[in-house]
Input
Amino acid sequence: MAGVQMRPAGDFRTGYGRDTTIFDDRASFLTVVILIAIAACAPLLLSGYGLNLMIQIGYLGIAALGLNILVGFTGQISIGHSVFFGFGAFASVFIHQRTGIPVFFCIPLAGCFTAAIGLIFGIPAARIKGLYLAIATLAAQFILQDFFARASWFTGGVAGTLADPVSIFGYQLIADQTYFYLVLAYVVVMYVLAANLMRTRDGRALIAVRDHYLSAEIMGVNLTKYRILSFGISSFYAGIGGALYAHYLGFVSVEAFTILFSIQFLGMIIIGGLGSIMGTLMGTAFMVLLPETMDAIGRALTDTPIDTALSLRSNIAFLQEMAIGLAIVLFLIFEPDGLAHRWRQIKAYWKLYPFSY
Amino acid sequence: MDFFFLLQLLIVGTIVGTLYGVVAMSFVLIYKASHVVNFAQGEFLLIGAWVCWWFLTEFQLPFVFGFLFTLVFMMIFGMLLQVLVLRPMIGEPVISVIMVTIGLSLFFQALMKWIFGTTAEPFPPIFESRYVELFGIINIQSVYIMSIVVSGLIMLSFAWFFKYSRTGLAMRATAFDQQAAQSMGVSVKQVFAMAWAISAMVSAVAGVVMGVVNGVSHALAFIGIKVFPAVILGGLDSVVGAVIGGLIIGLLEAVSQFIDVELGLGMNLYQVAPFYALIIILMFKPYGLFGTRDIERI
Output
């Protein structure tokens, strides 16, 4: 067990430095490295369908992480995340088509543009909070959705727009196998950025705004700045995720960015755990796999009496929506801290094994 | 400029606006009593309308009985929802409570689509003549007249209920100060359940009226979202404000529909206009016309 520190009964941290590390010890760092290495082998191990799901979890996970920074860390609820995701998708395609900048560089640029839009829509957050803000973001959802349908110069209108595949130095990432590595790289970078954000002065200020905004203001945190900033950061993540989505599918349509999609993003962070970076990824995986599982169950029951009595197969889309709604409600009632909390309990159990606490 | 068309639109806008007002009122009722923002208000309309339609078509009940059964059903439904889902959420942060109601709205909307399908179904006819002539110039559907009468009745009974009935008094007391009300012998739990039951019933009435006018479909649930501009405009905790806000939003829709047609913008401007109004209200007068300003003590 060379190099692995044993911490049999609790944390013995002796300085602030130890408290703000990303990884508690070498073992957890190695675990993450090994997990990423295993993920990097996914194209060799998984079938095309499994790889497709992994890529979905990747780009949705990036956008969900942005929402978690807004909701979980800063405590401002947003019911319009999908339109920012959509804005990123359209912006990346638009920049590429108008300027001819290689798609590879359009993706971060789209993130920056979306961040700017997020800052604008975050301005109401300077004045209002809690449920008023929730309603303001609901309005943003419908206004931007309407804008997408109108602005055909930007989005191709209701017909949608085609997105070129990503290419680096003339090498095109068309196949899922190669695109996966691009998404994986973005996931790693964005998650490391988010984990580090929470160690900085700005990240701590965001948490202070969430925990008690009046105290935060008295302590010298500029509320207006950080409330709007968190919208910007969240939109940046949404924009990157959206751009990755656009160039993966090759086609972006206005219809995709509905309020249902926004609710799905909220479901991801609630099921994963509000304010947990690791949990966001778990929640995203849950939310992507839930409809797939429903679909598989529906397919397994085809032509059985249950199927004919309830017409499961033909209504599978509604059943999937119901499952998402139900998952959100049940998690909030029975597991309000999400999967991340359960994961921490499992780790604690493992660490303390013969004893229960 | 077609002034006749504008007049027609304004009348319809007023009538739809009063219905928004009724739904906004039942929204405010829940908010005032239990400080829960109910994003599933539109689904109450939807469920009420579908259940009533089901009673009328499946069992061939006369309208009055089907309607009464619907009200009983919605009362039980609202109460159960409060006890099973919202009671465990007491004391949780605002975000969680909002999310629970969003989850509920998603669940019930999909459930209704699963059970009743996605196509709009017409109600069996209730009135003899479909049109009534007004002032000799304008034809108005008789269901619109009925809807105005029903909305007026609901508003009056709300006023009476809060002013003179014991339960209404208990509700006002709870809304004002939960702890004080509880120490004076008011069962806060009962009041919460009552608020949800009444709100569900009243929304269902609006749902049935809308269903009689336009047919029942999942589009009814969208009224639950239209309620937000109305409620914010009037003030989140003001019943009178809800009615006025609903009217203003109804008229705003009518005017923007007129502009849309006149200028040939060709899009659903009237669907989005309330949300622009919402953003403007929130920027300049976040507590609405009649809402109480939050004062926080440190």
